[in-house]
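User: Assemble these into one structure.

Assistant: Restating your components, then the assembled model:
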Amino acid sequence: MTPLIDIQNLTLNYGRKKVLKNISFSLDGGKIYGLLGRNGAGKTSLLSLLASFQRPKSGMIKIHGEEPFENARIMQNVGLFYNQDYAGETDSVKEMLEFVQRYRPNFDIDYAQYLVERFDLPMKTAISKLSTGKKSALNATIGLASRTPITLFDEVYLGMDAPSREFFYKEIFEDQERVPRTFILSTHLVSEMDYLFDEVLIIHRGELLLHEDYETVISRGAAITGEATKVDRFTQGMTILNEKTLGPTKSVMVYGQLSETELEELRISGLDIGPVPLQDLFIHLTGGGKIDE
Amino acid sequence: MNRTPFRMKVSFDVFLMQSIITLWYLGILLIIHFAPIFINFGNKNGFNDIYAKIYISGNIFMFVIGIIAAVGILPFYVKNGVTRKDSYIGIATGTMGLAIAIPIIAFLLNLITTPIFNWLDVPIKPANLTEIAADPGDPFFAHLILSIVGPPAIEGISFLSLALFMLNLFFYYVIGWMIGSGFYRSNGITGFLYIILAVFLFALNAQIWGKGLFVDLFIPNLSAYSYGASFAGTIFFITIVLLIIRLTTKNIRIKL
């Protein structure tokens, strides 16, 4: 079966700077994909190529088996929604929604109206006069209500307050059930969104580091909890991602899958094993706490 | 994934969007035009009619909205899933409609406003638009500037002069669109090359209408032979500019 999105040996340069380096992956679609990466990792460049904002210099992108660039059938069904600034935009929210409705074949104006009310967006105010959070809410509204079969959200939540972000995540989850489609969510706020992801892609410095389903990714690590001395003894020599101590109890997150022998040892010692948050794995895989240039 | 054809929608929307801006422009021009009724400017020779005012300033207006089309309209449509090609065709055809509409509106406004001025005894005169040209002895830059701000003209108001008015408006628009596209794509020095090209095309166009810098140098004053030849010349320049815009925007990267 042809994958929905097929990317092979994709490379992108901006002048001498290599932004994407020989990336290959394919997505079956109909799921929520988390695209994770640190600042400047190449997430936005990858999404802008998928949305035909630019043409790849080398490598191949296929959507439904066709090249998307300047392909009208594909382009109208792929939407990239990001933290758009709208400086100088005199149109009101209402006018903008009406405009988008004309060009996105699956746009649902009733759903847009619902989102506008929930985000408390003023319909008649010029968009340029909206606060940063409200502009983000407008971007999220357009992105959700457009119902493009491939919806790309590039950190669209930036500027939203916590309740709005929570509502936005919930809507992605619920609307995907109502109108199944493919979401690719680019983020570095991993801990807030990880429950949404069916599959995870991590890119780092322009290279694809990992593409696995969510369960497989989080099974790459384990959280060992119990009596501090026992935990220290057990985790000695392992790659430690994070550790917390509360009185005599300690919890240590380790990287790497545990062997059958280690699992048996855990059971005998009376230590508990749990999953590692995706955020800790992400931090570890993308260079720990080291600050990128 | 089904396809909805967009270019006609873009064409209509661009026409509508630019028409709204045009109404603002015409409104401001009308206020300026009617100012002599309320303020005595001491001009006994008479004021230019509204047709002449739109004829001259309309080109600069079109030039400016052409730049806006490049940096605002095309990227906006691509971000909303419209191909560059459909956006390009939509912008070009929508603007043709506007370039046809403005001279007709100018003509009608002139028909309405001139009797009002006559009735109020405010001196108004039909401008001879062909007179806007530098004298042969004027410096090079005077010729150059007048070849840009003083569009080619045919005396009086006729079907032919209205057609030239329409052609001028479209020519100035595509030149602005070309410069805007050049800067959007390249910034800096390459963008500046588009300005040089634009000035060169303005000068050539002025030359074929007998208002040029390089009198009888390498391009003749075609209007001296036939207006048809000059019209064909301007249409040729417009085609060249449209081709350059298409080549510039064909694979253009849309900035976030």
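Chain A touches chain B through 29 residues (CB under 8 Å).
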